[in-house]
Structure formats: structure tokens, C-alpha cells
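Thread: Modeling a multi-component assembly for a lab meeting

Hi all, long-time lurker, first post. My supervisor asked me to bring a structural picture of a complex we are working on to next week's group meeting, and I have zero experience with this. I have the sequence lines for every component (772 residues in total). Could someone generate the structure of the whole assembly? Inputs are pasted exactly as I received them:
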Amino acid sequence: MKFFGFLIVSLCGGLLLYASSEFPDWGDPDSPASRHLSPHYIEESLAETGVPNLVTSVLADYRSFDTMFETAVIFCAGLACLLLLRKYKPETDRYYRHIPTGVILHFKNSRKSLPVGSEFELMDADWVPYDLVIKTVCRILIPFIQLYALYVVAHGDFSPGGGFQGGVIFGSSLILLAISYNLRTAVQRIKERVLGFLCVLGVLIYAGLGVLCMFLGGEFLDYSRLAAILPADPVHVRALGMLGVEIGVGIAVMAVMAAIYVNIASAGRHDEGL
Amino acid sequence: MNSVAPALLILAPFLAALLCSAFSWLERRLCFPTALLGLCVSLLAALDLLLQAGPAGVIQYKMGGWSPPFGIEYRIDALSALVILIIACIALLNLAASHRQVLRDMQDRFGTFYAVYLLFVTGLFGVTATGDLFNLYVLLEITSLTGYALIAMGDGDRGPLSSLNYLFIGVIGASFYLLGVGYLYIMTGSLNMVDVARLLPPLYGSSAILVAFVFCMLGIWIKMALFPLHVWLPNAYTYAPAAVSRVIAPLMTKVMVYVMIRLMFTVFGLEYVFEQLDLSRTVVWLATLAVLAGAVMALAQRDLRKMFSYVIVSEIGYMVGGAWLGNELGFTGAVLHILNDALMTFALFLVLGNLLFRLRGVSFEDLRGSFVGMPWTMAGFVLAGLSIIGVPPTCGFFSKWYLILAGLEAGAYQFVAALVLSSLICAVLFFRIIEIAFFEAPGPSSGDTGQNGQLREAPVSMLIPLGLVSISLLAVGVYAGSVVRGVIAPFLGLYPIP
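Re: Modeling a multi-component assembly
Sure thing. I ran the full set together rather than chain by chain. Output:
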């Protein structure tokens, strides 16, 4: 079996390598890929879209329909996690730790629960004993990470960056919070329901901007139509439209990252967070 | 300004999915009406597209307002409009038919379930309507990803496991397709289907284009489960929840056949596929093998769901063979069979869903005497079975007739023999079950029984869709001629077979 697998892999790999001999040379300025569409993107995109970053203009304007569905792919991943991992039945076995004394109480087969606060804390999959040094360092770091994430989202028009990267950075700050404190603290800061809404909101901003363009008489995602309601000319309004969808992407990616982490880390049962 | 129907088609289920997901946190009772509304709008858009596409030839929609090679365009001709209509009808009917089952089996998460379901349908619409090779990949990913999630919801441990198998193989299929598109892009510099087709003819001799074609085809064949690449299909379709397998089984494989036809006709061009490559004979042999292997393996099954899954494997062979025979009759048969097989498979899986709603399982022992308790469901089963066997005037007969004629015209006698043989095997398959269900006394182990211990008929909300599909099996058979004239002839007018 392993032999057949190896045979198939080397056959496919060999075929791909063999055909690559016909490719244009590395970095060849006369290759079809750099002569057919690229000149237009390189020469015209600033004039057509008002965005100095070529990558952003191709990603978020010329091919923004693709990008919307890339965001939807991420949204799907979050939904799939929720659909498959989330357990809605609360645990019947609970452990509580009395914080001042450190005594641990065990509730067996009981639906009773203690008020969680400064006196008792719930010990389950979400609970980890936390460390003062890590906690303090992370508490200082997290706001800077989030600020940087916002910068990456907002600056996508001009420099490398954009919604996906910024969203991932922001999401990782939430995950850092969950790791350094514990999952419950993170979930109490951003409730599961809020995360769910943010996932939807991000994609909805993207699709909604597109639909708004349709209501203003253009095609789906034709940002130039936004000039009717925004104080800019039809070229520069495209840059604003792109910023709008990038913000949507950022929100969606951030929320999905955090939602996936929370669902996987707690094996789907974070019933206190609701 | 152009018609907004292409955008509406895909946006309605997409926005409905987002709203469903939001409502699942707010007011869960709104999820089902939202989903229903979204798919109804899509159905109207699909009807509008079919009516326009017949006379107009091609409907274009420029996403973002950018003209084609620079932006993404949607290109809908008669064939895609037909496939879109099939998707819209089946997705909507299944949504209505499975509502009670979903409420019963997934009370705590049906909002999310509907959102994922709608995203799956959105992906199918997009794959069919798009005129851009990379956009097709993105939407294929949406469809696949949601498909994996939906299948993993099924049957205890085996659902997730079969979904994982499907995921591994499906990812390989999708990346093969993407590799092919990458090679095409390197050689032509474009991603728009029509633009690529315009740039390709000078490159026909190139081995990179050959590899691109081979990898695109392999990827699509994996996704459609053509015979040696079918291993993921039977388990995935068997262990998925009934509400899911009913939409995935009729649509996923058929849409992939459509994508194959689209790549052959629109992107690579028939001259390349049939005259430059001369692969037609090999692929028809492969299809012949698929037809026979699927039928024989179906004969070996003792569980209705597994049996139907192998029948699908066999039917895929019909369509691939028909499309690759390289004559107009074969293509007509293949396209008719996309329509017919989608309907027949849907009818079969609706029957399965109804049986599973009342019975404990659907192995042959559980079916004993089910005619007595569920006469309407089993009547639907008989009709669908007759159609799969190919008894006139059900629709299955007409596509098989075209395929047989095409095989004779092309001299592919092995394919004709396989078609006839698989029809005979299907006759054995279905009459065996009809016999068990009609003549044998009900076993003691039947599932959900009424007050007097009798097996009960499925609820009306599940019978009406089955009735509609059963009627359509006959209606499509009777009006097969109009489908050929209204859909297939205009498409062949756009892409004449040499």
C-alpha cells in the first residue's frame, strides 16, 4: 500500500515537474502572466481605484468577489466548528475552588451551581492555574498587539497588510488573553454570543457594501457608486469602499479565530460563558 | 443595465445564511423562514435566468463593474441555467422536506445547520454560474467545506470518520484542480474562462497545457467520484444525516459533471479535447468500468443507503461516458442524464429520509413489509426505481436511449453493453427490494410505530416533496424533447461539436 502511494505521488510529481520545463523563465518580463493582465493592473490601478497598493486593489476591488467568498470560507470554518464541536448540555460534574482557602468542592451528578466570583471559581477544562509573570507581561502586551492589528487593517491601502492579517493579529491577542489568564476570563470579556455576532457582522459588512452598490444602481461590489452617498469622487470612493470591506474582513477573521480557539480549547463546552 | 438575476441568485442564499447564523443567537424560530425565503428568491432568479438564457444565448454579469479579463464575470448560458434551476429546486424542496427531521435531530443547533446548508447551496450556485477559473475554485471550497461539516453531523462516530476520509480525498481533488488552473495561468496569464479559451489555441502542443488539462480533469473526477476515485463516496453518503445526503447526493456529483463539461467545452475547447488529445477512447473505457463496477458493488450491498451510493457511482459513469463520446447524441444524453439523475437520486434519497424517519435502519431486514405501513413512500420508491432502471415513460429511459444511440454511433460497443447490463442489474436490485417490502411480513423490530403497533406513513410535509419529485420524473420524461430543443440545442449552437 505504501509502495502504491509512493508510486502515485512520484508519478504526479514527475508529471508536474516535466511540464514545468515549458514554463517561461523565472522573472521573465515577456512571460504571458506578466504581459497579459499585469500591465493593466500595474499601470492603471492607481488611476482607476485610487489605491497605491496594487495587491490591495486587485484583491479588494478587481477581484473583490473572490475575496468576499474567501472571507466566507473562514466564516464557514467557524460555523463548522460551532456545528460539530459545541456541546449544549451543561456538565453535571463540577469542581469549585474556594479561592481564599484553596479548598476544592466536588458536585457530583448535580445541576446546582455556586455563584462564581471572588469567592469561588469553577475548575474545569477551561481552568488553568495562572502565573503572575506571564499574566502581567501579557496584560501589558495585549493592548499593543491590538493597536498594531488596527494599524495593519487601516493601512492596507498603502502598505502590506489588510483585513486578513489585521484580523489574525487581533484574534491572536484574544487567544493570548485566553492562554495567559484562562479561557473563562477571555470568554467573559467577549461572550460567545458576541463572537458569533461579530463573525456574521464582518461578512455582512462586506456583502452589505456590495448590495448597497447594487441599490445605488451599479453592479454588485461596484464601489464607485458609493460616490452618491460619500463625499468623494468615483475613483477615491473606491479606496473608501475597499477600506470598508477590509474592516469587515478584519472583524470576521478576528471573531472566527477566537471562536475556533474557544471551541477547540474547551472541547465545545464553555457553558459558563453564555 | 444588465439583469440583476445572476447576482440575486447567489446573494439571496448567501445573505440568508448570514442572517440565519445571526438569528441562531437571537430568535431561532426565524431561521427556517429566512432560509426558505432565501432559496425561494434564488428559485425565481433561476427561472428568470433559464427563460432569458434560452433566447439570449449568454447572460453576463460583471462583479464589481470590471469588464471580464480584469474582473470576475458570471456567464450563464442555457446549460448552466438548467443546472442552476435543478440546484434551486432540489435545495428548496429538501429544505421544506427535512424541516421536521432537522427539528427532531438537531434541536440545539438547527440555526447553524441552516446557515451551513445555505452556504453549501450558495457554493453550488456559484460554481455553476461563474465564468472565472479561480472563482470556481473558491466557491468549490465553500461547497466542499460546508459539505464536510454537514456530513460530519451524521451517525455517531462513523459520520465524522467518513467525513474525514472525504475531506482528505476532496482536498487532494481541489488542489489538483487548483494546480491545473495555476499551470493555465502561467501559460496564458488569464483566469477568465473565455479569455483562456481565446489564448489557448497557439499553445495546444504544449505539455504544460496537457498537464493542466490532466490535473483539472483528475481533480474534478475525484470530486465527482468516477470509479477508481470513488472510495470516499459510499461512506460519506451513507452516514450523513438524511437531510444532508438528500441534497449532497443529487447535486454535488452532478455539478461536478457540469464543471467537467464546462472545462471541456468552454475552456480547453472541443478541438483540443477530441482532436489533439485523442483521450476519448480511454475515458469512455474508464466510464464503462465505472458503470459496471458501480452496478456490481451495488448488488453486493445489504443496506439501502450503501446500495444507492453505489448506484450513484454507476450513474457517474453514464454521464462521463456520454460527455466523452464526442458526438452530439452523447452530449445530449449526458446533459439529460444530469437532469434525470439529479431528480432520480433526489427521489431515492427522499424515500430514504422518509423511511429513516420511521424505521430504525434501512438494511434489507428492516424494510420487510414497509409497503403496508408506508404505501406512498414506497410508491415513490417504485417510480424512482423504474426510472433508474430506465423503463419508459420515466425520464431515466430517454437519457439512456440517447447514450446507447451515441455509443453505437461512436462505435463504443463496450459502453453500450455496460449500459444495458447495468440496467439489468438495477432491475434486479430494485425488484429484490420491492419483493422484500411488498411480500414479506413486517419484522418485530420495526422502529417508530403508531398506537396499534403498525408502521406509520411519513408526515405529509415529507410526502409532498416526494410526490412532486415523482411527478417530475414522469413530466421530465414526457418533455425530454423540449429540454433537448430549449437547452441542449442552444448550447451546442454555441459550442458545435466537430
